[in-house]
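Step 1: inspect the first sequence and its tokens.
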Amino acid sequence: MQEIKKIVIMGPESTGKSTLCRQLAAHYNTLWCPEYAREYLLTNGTNYTFDDLLTIAKRQVALEEMYHKKVIESETSNLLFVDTDMYVMKVWCEFVFGKCHPFIIDRIAKQQTDLYLLCNVDLPWVKDELREYPDLQTREELFHIYHNLLTNQPVLFEIISGTNDERFQAAITAVDTFIASPKKG
């Protein structure tokens, strides 16, 4: 069975994560796992609770596992791009509620990600019905939380900045470099 390399795109809201996932999956002829939180919040509304975040986290894990199997079955690529993971859920829980579900902490200890692409906040914020933080100061604070989290973990990551086109090119370079590296994750 082929070993699937998982690349997670993360960062504050409105930093082009979903767009980048779609672009990279198309470029590498593979699949990408969407962020379950969007579906959940569109269905249930944006007045979420701490327990809702646990539900979202569990369904995100299940969704990622489903896409992992689909990539294996497709036999076209060994890459899976994932829009968010349990680090994002941890930051979300702690930023909004000041605490984190043990399930999320346990999943972080078990998750195996080969490369993180951390999207910077240098794109203009785009309003949609789910976004909560239009002010740059809050988005910068969240970016620094993500950056510090990744810096203090034994994970590979690259910061992705610039316009959408620049981000796409920087992400391709980061993924190609990762693929070519003799030490892959």
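Step 2: inspect the second sequence and its tokens, then contrast the two.
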Amino acid sequence: VSINGKNTPAISATILSRSIGTPLPYVRFATLEYGYPNPAQRGSVIKWAYRIDKESAVRFRIYNGIGKLLRDDTLRKDKGVHQYSFVPDLEYSSGMYTLVMETNSGTQQQRFVILN
């Protein structure tokens, strides 16, 4: 540790800070990364990484190209980075699909393609 260019063997301090003006609200967030692989073959594992900033119920829904709900999963997850995996079976034909992730801090979606 050095102070004003001079070395000091050890130091302890308390730093006080104060907000100037109106305090900003705490902004919560959840992020959803793009699925991999995309496009994916039917029967292969598609994985999405996501991050939440607080313990939360995380709901994943998969819709087909005309908006029909095909899958609905709700998980309880702790704060941090997680992975959601999905294996399209014979029920899923070739086409575009949408994964929607909903947490108590917002909703995000990603489109993905399944090939036969």
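Step 3: confirm your contrast with the notes below.
The chain has a mean pLDDT of 86. The radius of gyration is 22 Å.
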